[in-house]
Each structure stands twice: as C-alpha cells, then as structure tokens.
Amino acid sequence: MRERSLPASPNWYCSRCSDVSSGGLLGVGAKNIIYLIDVSASSCRVSGELVGHKDLVSGFSFCQHAGQSHICVSSSTDGSIRFWDSDKKALIREHAAHQSPVSAVHWSPVDKNLVVSGDEKGVVFCHWYHTGDTASFFPEPRTIFCLSCSPHTWNTVAIGYKDGMIVLIDVSKKGEVMHRLRGHDDEIHSLSWSPLASEDALCNRLEDGEAANGVSAGEDRGGYLASGSKDQTVRIWSTAKGKGVMTMKLPYLKKRGSAVDPGVKERLWLSVLWPKGRATQLVSSCFSGELVLWDLTKAGKQRWTLLGTSSEGQNHSRIVFNLSSVHLEDGRELLISTSMDREIKCWDLASLDCCWTLPTLGGFVYALSFSPVGTGCLALGVGDNMIRVWNTLTTQNQYDTRSFWQSIKSKVTALAWHPQKEGSLSFGTDDGKVGIYDVFSNKPPQISSSYHRKTVYTLAWGPPVPPMSFGAAGGKPCYSLYSCAGEGVVLQHDPSKLSGEASDIDRLIRDTNNIKHKLSPHTDISWKPDGKVVAIGNEDGCIDVYQAPSLKLLCSIQQHHKIINALRWHHSHGSAPELHGLLASGSSNAIVYVHDLRSVIENPPESPVVLTEPYRRLCGHTSKITGMSWSPHHSARLVTVSYDGTAQVWDVLEEAAVSNYRGHVGYLLCVDWSPVDPDLIWTGGKDFTVQEWSVSKQEFTKPPKGKKMTEWKDKTKANAKQVKKNKKASAAGGAAAWETNGGGAATGREKMVTQQPSCEDEDDEVGSTNSPAPSPATFEVQRKSSAAVKSKDKPDGNLLKKKKPRSMLPLSTSMDHRPKEELLQDCVTLASVKHNSAHPAACAPGKGEFIHLGLFADRQALHHMFETEEEGHIEAGHFDSVVYLRLWSGDLEGALQLATEKGELNDHLLSIAPMAGFKVWSQTVEAFVKQLCLQEQYLKAASHLLSINKLYEAVDLLRSHKLYREAIALVKARLPADEPVLKELYTSWAAVLEKDGHFSAAAKCYLATGASFDAAKVISRKNDVPSLRAAASLARISGEAALAQSLALRCAKDLAADQDWVGAQEVLSSQDSLLVHGLHLCVAELLAVMLADSGAIPPAPCVSSHPWASPGQRCVTIQDRARAVWEEQFGVSQTSTGHRSVGALLQELKSAESPTPTTNIPLRQVLLYSSLHLTRAVLSWLQDDDGELTKQLGHALAWLRDTRHLSQSAELCKLLFPDGDVSVCSRKYPKTIHPTEEEAKAAARSLSAFVHYHRMYECWWRNSADGRKTQNGLPPSAACPEDEAKDGMANGGLSESGESLRPAAEMVDTLDFDASLLLSDSHAAVQATQRCVKEIQERLSAMVLQHSRTQGGQLNSGEEPEDSADAGGQCSEDQDSLMSLSAKMSKYQKELADLPQAIKMYPHPDVVECCLVLLHLDESSPSLSASLRQEARDLLGKYATSPSVLKASRRFLT
After folding, report:
1. If DSSP codes are grouped into helix, strand and coil, which group holds residue 30?
2. What single string gives the DSSP state of each residue in 1185-1220?
3. At a CB cut-off of 8 Å and minimum separation 6, what does 308 contact?
4. How many Cα atoms occupy the beta-carbon half-sphere of 726 within 13 Å?
5. Cβ-contact 1097, 1149 below 8 angstroms
6. In the chain, what is the greatest distance between 2 CA atoms, to the nearest angstrom?
7. Checking DSSP bridges between strand 680-685 and strand 690-694, what pairing results, if any?
8. Of these four, 160, 205, 602, 1012, which has the most CB atoms within 10 Å of its CB?
9. CA 734 to CA 305: how far, in whole Å?
10. For the whole model, what pTM was predicted?
11. pLDDT tens figures, 56-107
C-alpha cells in the first residue's frame, strides 16, 4: 500500500521502547502506536503499525525463540500488556493486570512463554503466553525504571529502580529477592546481561582485589549484569556473589555532529547493551548522543572506543534512549539506537560505522510541498518546531533529510517554495511568525518584522500589488509573499526587505472596489499560476476572485456555507486551455467543488458576478476537507485529504473516484503530488507520519461509509482518547503520562477563527524546543496551548457546554415538556382565562395541574405558583431557592428567617437585610456570625459584628479562637491606648507564643505591656549567644540593671567558652558593673594563650582574640602581663578609685562561684575557674595582701591539679614562678611574698612544695635514660610524666615496656630544686592515715556488697544453702572482720581530726612518691646530702605500706 514513510518519533525516557526480532524486524513505540521497520536490507523500510493501545507505549519486546519470533509484547501507561502478531499486524491477547502505568516489559530469552513486566508502584507481573495466566510480586516498594530477564536461567529477573537500587528476584519462588545490588546513586536507566553464563571473562579486571583474595571469579554460575545509571557510571555486577566488580565513569567527549537547538533541555540517559557473542565488550550511550564501545579487559583511555569516527556527523546529537542488536543471516551484526534527536540509526558493530539513518517526526505534519525548481525536494512543516527538507530522489540514502530549527519557536503550520529561486522556502508558524529559509546555506532564516496575532494558515507567492508594486520596474522583486492567518488578515511581505512593514491587502480591496462594510475574515489565499488573478477564501464560506494588480473583484463564489480550508488552481502546463481556469475548493462540509472561471478571467465583467453553481461536484468524503493538490502529470486529476482519515484521488471531469488511501491512523492535514512519478502521492497528518503511496496499488476507490465509516472513526480516534486521559491526569498533578518525544500541545491542520480547540484537536504533539526533561518518576507529558489549531469550524458545542444551573421554578418548567397536544391545550386554557371573566371549571392558574399557568396569569396566580414551588424545593432540600422565591414575592423577613433556620445565610441576603428594618438586620447579622463560626470563618464573623457596633464581642470572638494578632490590631484601631483588654490580649498571646517557642514574638508582647523584665527573661530562654546579648541589651535599656548584669555575664562566659574573647569583652564593656569580670576574662585569655604557646594544651580554633594577648614574652610571668594589661586597657591599678578601686573589685569578685574541682569538668571550664583565682591573686597583690595572694595562687594550681590536668599544672607553675622561688611574685614590679598568718604560711609551704615537685620531675625527664625530648611524640610536660614515673618505680624502676626509667649517671647534674621541701614527716603521716582510711572504706564497701548479694540470692531462691555449716562459719568471720574494720576506721578518723587544720587544708605532694624519685635520682648520681638521703629512707621505711611501693623501695631499705 505504501512505498516510503517517515514514522513518528520513538517515545522518550523509556528503558526498553524498541526491540529487534531475530529476522531483522524493528519495533519502536511512538505515542500509542508501535511502528514496524524492516532493517534486514541495506536500507530500512516502515512495513506497518500495531495500533490499539489507548495510552503511550512504555515498553516493547520480541520473542527471540524460533517459531515465535513474529510474536511480540508491548506495555502502556494505561496499565495494559498486549501480545501481537507482527506478521498479521493483529492483536492476539490483552492483559490488564497492572493498576499503575507499566514502566518496563521483557520477554524471557530462556522461556518462550514467560513475559515479565513492572509498573511505577513496584509491582512485578509474570505473564505466561501459552496459558494466559499471570502472577504478581511486590519485591520492593519503589518505582521501577527497567527490568531484564536473565538469558541463562528462566527464573532470574533483574529490576532497576528510580533510587539506584538493583534487585535480583526469583520468579519461581514468589518473587523472592536473591540479591540487592547497591552502588548507584540515581535512577537505573538500563540493564543488560552478559551473553555468557559463567563469570570467567573478567576475572583479571575485578575490583577491590577480589581475585587476589583467593576468590575465583568463575566458580559460581550466574553471569555478569551491566547497569547504566543517571549517576554517570556503568557498573558490572557479579550476580553469583551479589556485588559489583567493575565501575566505569563516562568519558567527557567533545560535542560532535551538527548543531542542535539549545532550547531543548535534556538530561543524561545512560543506555547499555551487551552484544551477543561479545563477552568482554559493552556498548553504552554517553552525554550528548555518542555511542561508546567498552573493552572490559583494558583500563584507562584504551578501555573505550567511540562509534562513528570515520566521518563527521554519524553520531546522534542528543541523548540515546534505547539500544538493541541483531545477528542477520548474512553475517552482519547490527546495532539499532533511538535518540532524542528524533533519529533511528543503524550501526555495523564490525566497522563501528553508521549504516543508515531514519528520520522521525515529533509532531503533526501540517504542511508538505515539493519545490517547483529543485526536483524531488520535499519540505515538511512539522509540529515539533522544525522544518525537514527531504531529497526524495537520492539513490544512496532514501531518507536524505536536513532539519531546520533556528528562529522557529513553535509549530510550523505553512510552507511555500519560491516559484523561481532555488532553495528559497517560506514558512509560517503557530505563533504568527513568517520567515524565509535558504535551505542550501547554514544561515539563520530571515524573519518578517510584521507578526500575525494568530496562527499562520497559508503562504503564497504572487505578483506584488500596491503599494508594493509601485516602482516595480525599478528593481522591486517580481514576487511578493502573502500570508493568511487566524485573525482573518492577509499580509503582503517584501521578500527582499522583510524588516520593513508588511501591508494589509484589505485596504487595497476596499479602495478599489469602493467597499464600506467590514470584510469577512480571510482563511485561505491561492494565486493563479500566471499571476493574473487571486482567489481568497473566507470564514463565511464565500470565495472572492480578484484581478491583479488592483485587486478588482471579478466574481464571488457562494457555494460553500462553511469556512474555507483549501483553494487550488489547476496548473497551466501541458493541459488543455479550457482547464486553466479550474479552481478547486474544500471546506468543512466534506464536499469538494470545482468552478470554471475561464470566462470571467478572460472577459472581466464590469461589476462582480455571483456564482452559485459549480462546474463539478466531488462527493465522497465524510468529514471536512483539509488539503488538496492537482496532478502535474494529468489533466483535471485532483487528490484531496480529509478529516475522515483518507486521501482521495478524483477524475474531476468525470466526477469519479479513482483511488482511496487509508494508510494513516488519524485525520490527514496535507498532500502533494510527486513531481516526477505520476503514480506517487505524499500525505501527512495527525499520526506524526509522512507517507508515500502509489495510486494504482490501492485496494479501495472511495472513502469508507456507513458502518465501515463508524469503525474507521473508532480506530482513528484512539489517539484522542489517550490524550483526554493524559490531560485529566496532568490537571490532577499526578504522575500520569509518560513523555511522548518531549510533549507539547498539538493541533490539527484546521484553521480556527476562535481560540477554543475543536474536539478532534485534543491530541498533543511534541514541542521539542520547549520541553525540559521530565521528572523521572512521572514522565510528564508537557503540553502547549492549542492556539495553532487551523480550524475553520465553530468549536464543538460539547466542549463548551457548561453545567446548566438549577431552575428556580422546576415544577412549572417540567410542565413544558409534556406532549404536544397538552401544550396546545394549555394555550387554549390560558386564552379562556385571559379573555373570560369566569375561569373554566376546575381551572385555577398557579395550582395543581395548572401551576405553570401562574406565570402567565395575574399576581395572585403567581403567588400560588410560588407556594407550590416552595413546597417542592423544601422536599428536595433546596432551601436557597425557597429563600429567593420569598424574596421575590416581597416576604423579605420570612426569607431571612428561613435562611437563618437552615443555615443558608450569605452575603447577598445580608446586604438586603436592612430593607426589613434595623432589628431584623441586627438579628440576621448575629445569626450569620454564628453560621460563619460554625464554618470556621472567624475573621469574617468578627467583621460582621463590627457592623452592628459589637466591638468587644468581636474581640472576644477573635481571642477565643487564638487570633490574637487580629484582635490586638482591632483593639488598637478602635479603642484607647489604656484599654485593659489590650494588656490582657498581649499577655495571653505572649503566653501562647512562649509555649510554642516563639520567644522573640513573646518578648514584643511583654514590651508592649511594659513588662521589660519578662521580655528580657523570655528572650534569654533560648540560651544562645545572640539571644543572651539581645536580652542583656533589652534589660539594660529598660533599667533592669541586675538582670542586665546577669544576662551579660552569661553571654560573656558562653563567648569565652567558644574562644571569642573580643566578643566577650564587648558584652562586658557595655556595663561598668561588670568590669571585674572583664579582668577575669582578660586573665583567662592570657592563660589560654600562654599555655597553648608552650604546648601544654593543644591549640584550639580561636574566633577572636586581642592584640595584647598575642603569644611571646615567655620570660614574663602571667601575673606581670595581667597587671600590665589591666593598667593599659582597663585603667585598673593600685591607685585607681571609684568602681575601678581594687578593694571594690576584689569584694565583687569574691561573690563569683567556684565549685569543688572534679575530674569530669572540661579543660576550658577548668581554665576559667583557675583564672578566677589568678584574678583574685593579682587583685590581692595590688592590695598588698600577701596572705590572700598566696592562698589564691595555691587555689589556681589546685584546680588544675585536682582535675588531673598535671601537665597544665606544671606549666602554670613555670608561668607563675619561672625561677622556682615562690617568694618572688614579680620582677617587673618588684614584689616578694611574706605571709604572716599561720594559714597563709601553710599555703605558701604547699605552693612551694608543688612548685619543687614539678621541678623534680623536670629533672627526672631532662636526665632520662634515653635522653629523649619527647614522650610518645609529646614533650614530657604534655604527657603526664608523674604518672608514668610512679608506675615505673612501682615496677622496680622499669616501665611497662621493660625500658629503664633510671636517669643516666653521666647526665645527672646537681639538683635545681630544694629537695628538703618535699620531705615532710607530718604530711607523710597524714597521707598514710588517709590511705589507710581509703583502704578500709574500700574493704567495707566490698563486704557490704557481698553480703547484700548473698542475702538477695537466698531470698530469691527460697532454699537453704547446700553447706549450711560452712556458710555459718563464714558469716561469723565476716562479722568479726566488720567489727575490727569499724574500730580501725574510728581510730584513723580520730587521728585525722586531731591534726592541725592547716595541714589538712593545704595539701602536699605524696611524700612516699617524692622519696622514691629522689632516691632513684641519687642512685644514678649522688646528688643528695647524707642527711636528706637518710631522711628519705626513714620516711620510706615508716610510711611505705602498699605492696607496689614496698617492692620499689626494697633496694633502698636493704
């Protein structure tokens, strides 16, 4: 039936929408049709379609088994699965198991009867072809993107999901999940199995050293699986092990091929295909349409090879969606690819070159036209915003086409070749644009500066007419371009100067013909080939013929009564002269008329003539005519296309039908006769295809009629049903429709005067330039407006029909639908009533069976009718109608009362309520307020209360429903500022806001009521730095000094903890009363910086610090630096007065909290507490209080020591007393410490002992056996040397590693500390007693715990012990031990109580520990005096009690 054709574009964003059979038949899903293309020959040919799906085709697969290779399966977004016979082009069976759009389908390569499909909800169905049975599984609640059946085992299926998960299921075990393959981060676009069942081929390229770990790659059968994902990677998976073995990142390639429209937005789609027989080679798509062949045995850039590199332009220019391959009988291995660039390409896998390219169309074919100069050059105007120019006579490439898209932003609806200039093609678009392309150059088109307001219907080249024809001899062009568009205007464009303004020919027509009335809108224009006359079709069906160049009206053809769709003059070459005046016209009434205008043209009449009879009448089409073309090879042979879906060839002179073509699916829009072959005709239409067919090979001669026509229309309207469903789903915002080649509203080739689309034009087509990539889960169909519809019919009334409002008088209206006889009798009865004073017997207009006559009788009858109608409305529950009837009859109060009772009050009734009086209106307002409250319209209710001056009620209404903001606004606008209700509202709102955590808003409410204290407190509840800072400022401004001080101090401490020293000082500087805390943070900053500079603490990230705290000046003590900074920055010195006086500052600082040190306090907090005591010490120094100075320095060290920060404690000793002399407080400000009180002296002794204790350990580590300078990578001061030394001595002088800890003899110098200060008999006695108390406490607690466990076990078991005698004896021993321990405890506690308080208050280093260290040092190199050595031994022998210490001291005591 057909020769060549361009099919519709394959659907986008579908994982498997095309497949090739073993015999070389390619099936591709395009919209809701499957096109069958024979690819077995050297060039391709569209061999047929599979029509039947009501929605978009989402998947397609052939059965690859011998004997069934012609059977195929398809899936659709309507949820259906269809089995087809591709030889017979017939449906075999349909399954409607899925409840959601099907996203993937595949015919098992192993089982010839198994088909597996998956939908967007994650449901998987197995369909058995031979029995028709189905089984469903739900392996994962995810959106399925693709699936693939294993070619090795029938029951294994791989499923790829939207979120990047790949699942392997066993369909023989109810969909049990075998493996979950995790690795991809985004959508799985494609899955492909290795053709080999084993996993040996890639064992040398496995990831992660898998083969090296002793795992043989081929020991398990399963086969490899390749996956392509949106995350730009291709992964190879071992299905036997359930893990990835190889990952390949897509290479970035330079853009190849021809230029593409930048307006088309695309995203990556990664397709993969594992060709049969190629176990180590994989084909995948790339970023911009390139195809890459991967060699899985290689690495790096050698791994991939680009297809189509032998010549330019072989690759796709957009992303590739589907790949499929086939082995032909002649040995060729072909690869078929479909792409967003609307091309289907065939590749030879042996040479990696493109064999052929089949262009496809993504929209309605609105116009097609053969060039009159370039023979065989066919131009196509398509709804995908592109023009195709097809060289139909090329022998090497039967589908040699070029696409033009530059400057075209909407559907191409009209085309016209220049009659003489080769390659000059004019075009018109849906958005009213007119332009001219030079198809032999790459330049963008010339665009006319004059735009139509609506769709361009027709373009025609003709001789210029005024004003453009003036001066034509002076170089003006001999042809003008005429355009007719939807607004009914014909414009004349100068092709040599399109930038100039086009002229409207209506002005010339009016002037020449002296027409005063408005001209009918024009819908088509056709110039006679010789340029002498022009025919213009109009919206009213009239055709006017004008003589050029003045456009004098010759005749008016009033044959058609509907809008003119097509006009064509018979050609003037090679035909009899009597045929040169034939004009064929087609309209929406399905009849083609041919008029002979030869006599009118050759002998123009003085006045226009009206023609009402045609020369020939061509009847046969059953729907509107959309296009026509005269045969250039015959005389009076015409082809027409129609909305009936057929093309008809006519013998005009005989009025006979010659041939009828029915190859399209849907209505036709354009037609042209081949300029070289008399038997070939080209047609295009709604089905997105252009088809070439032979007149002599058609089976039918006339269009189908009667029942056949009904069946034909049902078949061709399949697309319309699909799009209605898509539009509903799109309007609901759901994930309804998949993308059909990009989506966009399509329109038929109808010329439309009004903006509403006709019912036939509901289908959509592709607007590729404006279609961004869809959401992957929804595959939305993007749609444009239908403004480009070229319809010359009135809009379909069914589409514009609105819901009819309910009648106010339904009973009387229903009486008008009785039989005709009764209606006539009503007229007689009414006449009797009107003209006789006495009514006929039993006739009462407005009542009973004469209710409807109440409308035509007197007022009383009308009221009777209203009463009856009211009863009917009340029974039906239509109370609003009753209200209006009462209102019309004047019973306003009754109407309002009824509306109040039924809750049917509205704004309209309220607006007319004042007509019934103030009281009624006020009651109505109150009732309406209650009704609005029930409907939760509180703001509106409050506004109505204001209208009756009930302000307080309105406020209470708003407050009761927590509309505090509106209530406050109302009170402030209408009541005085001191109104008590305002404060109540603010307080209530603040409480609600505070409860909900909106502290700043609550603070504003408190401020509005004057409660500044509460405002500051609520802001501070957030307890972050900005909130505390704002709260402190608010309290200070409001005069809440105490609160402001407290909040500012909290804020400063938080900032100091975060190392934001500058911010902390800024907060404190805002209030003079916080000066002493500023001094404290100054000392804290200096301490932190100096400790970090010495390495005692790790350097922490500092938010901000002061210049005076910069590290350096290590020879200066911390107290000297603090005093200098205080004097320079804070103005605090010995002589300062007022709030800066030392006494006042010291008194204020004494109130600052300083808890008991514990080991779980963070180091930063410990430093703050230690610096607090340092601050007190410096202030005491300035006050010359040596006793307090000594105590506070001791407390500062004790904080670090008691919290087990020993290295920091040692470093602080250096910072305080660089020379080790605690009596020297400062050298910069000469000061020595001379305590006089006994407690102060004890504090000084304790301080001096700990300073020398740390210096002792410095000597130990400085002279260590290995001479090392670091311990575990840290300086000794940072590594707690005391602890390690204790452990070492306890082991007899060996560390845990066995390394000697004794100092080397040759490295020991004289001691640089006073060892006698460390040997204190009194302190040793106290420490020994404390150790005994601790030991007894531990034993007592252990005994109590054991006893409680024993008692608990007996109570739980309820049984006697097995050996009661032994148990009794044990209890007796425990009792004795408990009594003796208690006595010892009492004794030791009495001894401790009798000791002097100063000894207990100020601790001393462990005397036994100091004895051991000193004796070790002395053993290596005698450095102690004999008396000190003996004193140390005596103390060891007297107080060394623990086993570990006894072991370490044994050598010194023997």
Report:
1. strand
2. -HHHHHHHHHHHHHHHHHTT-HHHHHHHHHHH-TTS
3. 256, 290, 291, 314, 315, 347, 352, 353, 354
4. 30
5. no
6. 157
7. antiparallel
8. 160
9. 42
10. 0.56
11. 999 999 999 999 999 999 999 999 999 999 999 999 999 999 999 999 999 9
